[in-house]
Amino acid sequence: MTIDYIIVGQGISGTFLSWELMKRGKRVLVIDEPKNNSASKVASGVINPVTGRRVVRTWEIETLMPYAVEAYTRFGEELGTGLIRQCNILDFHATPQMKMAFAERLHEEPFLSTPTNENDYYQWFHPAFGVTEINPCWLIQLHSLLNSWRNELRKKDYLVEENFDITNCSIQPEKIIYKDIIAQKIIFCDGTVGFDNPYFKLLPYARNKGQALIAAIPDLPTTHIFKQGINIVPWQDGLFWIGSSYEWDFTTLAPSTDFQEKVVSQLKQWLKLPFTVVDHIAGERPANMERRPFVGFHPIMPSVGILNGMGTKGCSLAPYFAHQLTQYLVEGATIHPQADVQRFRKILSR
Ligand SMILES: Cc1cc2nc3c(=O)[nH]c(=O)nc-3n(C[C@H](O)[C@H](O)[C@H](O)COP(=O)(O)OP(=O)(O)OC[C@H]3O[C@@H](n4cnc5c(N)ncnc54)[C@H](O)[C@@H]3O)c2cc1C
After folding, report:
1. How close is the Cα of 349 to the center of ligand 1, in Å?
2. Is the CB of 280 under 6 A from ligand 1?
3. Residue ranges of the alpha helices (H) in 24-141?
4. DSSP-derived secondary structure for 87-103
5. 119 C-alpha to ligand 1 centroid (Å)
6. pLDDT tens, residue by residue, 169-211
7. Among residues 69, 298, 319, 39, which one has the least CA distance to residue 188?
8. Closest approach atom of ligand 1 to CA 282
9. Nearest residue CA, atom 10 of ligand 1?
10. Cα 303 from Cα 333, distance rounded (Å)
11. Separation of CA 39 and ligand 1 centre (Å)
């Protein structure tokens, strides 16, 4: 079988890349080993334009967010399922210092405002040092996206559900041969598994573990994401996703009792409503030291590409950079220089 591209991985990155390439008439084959704890499966699916203690805008958000909103809307229409909705964050300030940090930014940052009905929220939460609304934020139905697109790929016979073993693959500058498949190029969208990929293992990756509790909170509305150190995010099946940790130093990917105890205690102090924890999930973010994605082709082996390094922001980065990579392949367009993996030309040429 002769095709255009092999794509390894069907998280958010491989999903958007295969969708974009297929729209351009390219024949792809997606190879994905199903795993319940991949980053895309455990993520809450939030697009938040401002982050951190200093409440600063995230990189390129003015471009990434509108693109993502349009892409998820269109993708959802094609799949016949809603994939995105606006769901603003209500940030409850735990200390007077936090209140001040937000107050300083309120005047200069249009994404921030003070809700007029702040007192309404105190029927569900214990009083805080004020509330700031981040508007707009977006919530993605990641499981619907991944499952619906997987079904489409399966129907077209464009999906192989197995572990891709690079040692069984002949990689040549002009072509890729994997079992009975001949492709022009192979593109790795393999998340943290790709940290060991022989072509890209010298990139400055950083492993980051994140955990979340899944809970039923029957009386809490699903209109907003509620934040106070932890986020309470409306999730699937009427449940809430509550997290997360950002762990740089860990020996196992298993959920930890420490995290569960800490979050349950935080919830009890903040939330007035009863809740029941029904699950505890954990996964690994494909993060990196630069906090910029890795997009493009290997400087020495031009048949090998990458769409990875999405870190904590896959929901906004993956749609845009899957599109740029497609434009690069189909029209020879340029890739954002801070995302193009060619910035590591020297390191990757070793
Ligand atoms: C707890 C947590 C919360 C998060 N919350 C958010 C959030 O709210 N918003 C946001 O934007 N981001 C969030 N993120 C980050 C986001 O999840 C990632 O940036 C994104 O999912 C990365 O997607 P990916 O497709 O690049 O990688 P992955 O999701 O890891 O997908 C890689 C896929 O490749 C497959 N694969 C890998 N190697 C092979 C192989 N050799 N053979 C076959 N298949 C293979 C894997 O099985 C997997 O399906 C969160 C992450 C975590 C851990």
Report:
1. 27
2. no
3. 39-42, 61-79, 96-106, 118-121
4. --EEEE-SSHHHHHHHH
5. 38
6. 999 999 999 999 999 999 999 999 999 999 999 999 999 999 9
7. 298
8. 1
9. 313
10. 17
11. 3
324 in contact with ligand 1, CB cutoff 6 A: no
Q: Give the Å distance between the CA of 213 and the centre of ligand 1.
A: 18
Domains of the chain and CATH, by start: 2-43+143-203+290-348 (3.50.50.60), 85-138+206-285 (3.30.9.10)
Question: Residue 189: is it exposed, middle or buried by C-beta count within 10 angstroms (0-12/13-18/19+)?
Answer: buried
Residue with tokens 């938040």: 48
Do 215 and 276 contact (CB within 8 A), yes or no? Answer: yes
Tell me the pTM. Answer: 0.98
191 close to ligand 1 (CB < 6 Angstrom): yes
Reported as a pLDDT band with limits 50, 70 and 90, residue 350 is: confident
* Tens-place pLDDT, residues 149-164: 999 999 999 999 999 9
Tokens of 201: 């293992």
Among the listed residues 338, 298, 344, 304, the one whose alpha carbon sits nearest the alpha carbon of residue 321: 338
Tell me if 76 CB under 6 Å of ligand 1.
no
DSSP string, 40-54: HHH---EE-SEETTT
Residues composing the chain = 350
- For residue 233, give the ligand 1 atom closest to its CA: 8
Residue 69 CB neighbours (<10 A): 18
Q: How far, in Å, is the centroid of ligand 1 from the Cα of 17? A: 14
